[in-house]
Amino acid sequence: MYSIQDVSRKTGLTAHTLRYYEKEGLIPSIERSQGGIRQYTDEDLEALGLICCLKNTGMSLQEIARFVQLTQAGEHTLRERVNMLTEHRENVIARMAEMQKYLDKVTWKVNYFSRKLEEYESREAKEAK
Amino acid sequence: MYSIQDVSRKTGLTAHTLRYYEKEGLIPSIERSQGGIRQYTDEDLEALGLICCLKNTGMSLQEIARFVQLTQAGEHTLRERVNMLTEHRENVIARMAEMQKYLDKVTWKVNYFSRKLEEYESREAKEAK
DNA sequence: CCTGTTCTTAAAGTTTACTCTAAGTCAAGA
DNA sequence: TCTTGACTTAGAGTAAACTTTAAGAACAGG
């Protein structure tokens, strides 16, 4: 059992954000103590792990909420969930490929400007003499 | 020479956005015809290519504007520009590594749910008999 | 000449994902 | 008991990057 602060530390999300996510349906409702205080289980942490994973790969909170709601609705939503994740996976792969292409361009530019910089500096050094 | 619509088509940015970028200093001022109409050169397109590249790899418009302004300020800013690009490049690499890690998790989940789905479907098929 | 494109400024609106505030109550651990 | 920490609702605020609107004027190609 973890307090909201524990979970905040573990996930890097603030307590505020954790409550916000719960309100928005991104986290299945968390069990409470007799006094109404949230008690996160290891299972909740697991679920949060997937949520962060989806979020950090660019899935919108809305879609994540949909996914979580499907999960809660039971086995008959398995096909839709598989479809969602598969599509998301393809998006991520596509984005990474694009990213790699852009990275190559940036690398090229770094090298290009580095060469320019060297030329410039040796020119400066000569003039200083 | 290209009109703003030509450039819009080529870059995927709207004419609105192109003017907005210019106003915000993300694009060096574009030459105009006698009548005041923007005439983009191949060189402008080149510059836009780098700008889109930086934007699509997550650099903020503000930072891009700074970079463009350094470029216009001349050779003595070469070191700073190299530093900016190098740092950005490292960020991109780090983000891609993180992405790959998340992708592995998503892939694992896709497989996991696919197995569950198969089980579920064969169970359903049996019950239908 | 007509039509469609482009120009201007200035400001309001949109979306996403938080983030914070207020104000007051309640719970948990030393 | 005292002091953190947690709870609530509801709504305002924030930041980034657009996006749209309005309204009128000027330009360019057939």
Kindly summarize this structure in a few lines.
Chain A is built from five helices and no strands. Chain A is an all-alpha fold and 129 residues long. The first copy, chain A, starts with a helix and ends with a helix.
Describe what you observe in this structure.
Two copies of one chain form a homodimer. Chain A is mainly α and 129 residues long. Chain A has five helices and no strands. The longest helix of chain A has 51 residues, at 78-128. At the A-B interface, α3 and α5 of A face α3 and α5 of B. Chain A binds a DNA duplex (30 and 30 nucleotides) through α2.
Helix content of chain A: over 70%
Gyration radius of chain A (Cα, Å) is 24 Å
In DSSP terms (H or I, runs of 4 or more residues), the helix count of chain A works out at 5
Q: Note poorly predicted spans of chain A.
A: none
Largest sheet of chain A: none
Total discrete domains of chain A? 2
Greatest interface by residues involved: A-B, 35 and 35 residues
Which quaternary structure do these chains form? homodimer
Proportion in β-strands of chain A: under 5%
Q: What's the order of the H and E elements of chain A?
A: HHHHH
Taken from the alpha-carbon principal axes, the silhouette of chain A is: elongated
| Mean pLDDT across all amino acids of chain A | 95
Instruction: Work out the number of β strands of chain A.
Output: 0
How widely separated are the two ends of chain A? 71 Å
Q: Just give the CATH class of the largest domain in chain A.
A: Mainly Alpha
Structural class of chain A: mainly alpha
CATH topology of the largest domain in chain A: Multidrug-efflux Transporter Regulator, Chain: A, Domain 2
